[in-house]
Amino acid sequence: MKQYLDLEDIKDLDNLIQKAITLKNNPFHHQELGRNKTIGLLFFNSSLRTRLSTQKAAQNLGMNVMTLDLKTDSWQLEFEEGSIMDTTKAEHIKEAAAVISQYVDIIALRAFPTLIDKEQDQKETILKSFQKYASVPVVNMESATAHPLQALTDAITITEHSIVKRPKVVLSWAPHPKALPHAVPNSFAKVMQMMDVDFSITHPKGYELNPEITQNTPIIYNQEEAIENADFIYAKNWSSYTDYGKILSTDQRWMINLEKLNNAKFMHCLPVRRNVIVDDSVLDSDQSLVIQQANNRTYAAQAVLKELLENL
Length: 312
Ligand code: CP
Hints:
Layout: H1 13-25, E1 38-43, H2 49-60, E2 64-69, H3 70-73, E3 77-78, E4 91-92, H4 93-103, E5 106-110, H5 118-123, H6 125-133, E6 138-140, H7 148-161, E7 168-173, H8 183-193, E8 198-202, H9 211-214, E9 219-220, H10 223-227, E10 232-236, H11 258-261, E11 265-267, H12 280-283, H13 290-310
Parallel strand pairs: 1-2, 1-5, 3-4, 5-6, 7-8, 7-10, 8-9, 10-11
Helix pairs in contact: 1-7, 1-13, 2-13, 7-8, 7-13
């Protein structure tokens, strides 16, 4: 692996899942691999899990870690080619990416969408600019349209907890008071399409994800019908993709409760709003996998970093 910008960078998903599970059983086995190597974690946006789990993954591999919060602790970056930089942006990505590449061996980056300018968000300007101007591998820690470390985590978690050969997995939209990005549902849909699962998506009309991502995945507008006999229910809010970034509904009837969960396992990437997305009774039950999912963030990141280190 030369970079991890999206799930297409994975050559063999099953193999990578098994490697992550092996690392989970023996996390310090490859401490020499990362010795004298450094990862730079660059955040344009907040994080709890991604920041700590990626740091832990790197440390498990013997790496040094440097973290920079670009929103608060660094110069504002200019990404436009040929820009006359006479306003607030003090440093161009060309210099910034080249300079950071001299300090670190891998750059990992988080940059959320605007949810205002669809065309701009779809271009993935920040992620792609780092890829273009950095001379070291780049890892996506959630960009405008994708969260491939979360998706790999989710694939690992479903693999670990499946008790049938081909589980039924349903991605259900759930209500939320703020407009949220499409990165997690996009990447979850993509990774489920790469696995041998019975996968469908349920959401209110108007919440269709990018059709280039959902492709032939069944979309069922009736949640009750969609989740019947599900083995895994993955709840997530996202804003409208068509009416870009808008909240079209906050209908609480879409919240997941124990009755809807039935015999299924509950999944969510976290952070989650209790009693808005999902009822307390679900999160506090043995059927919730959210904590195990968050734990797997470390081993997903570790499997990816190990592949990158082996190719430096
Ligand atoms: N799931 C996830 O990416 O969590 P953080 O936003 O806390 O990193």
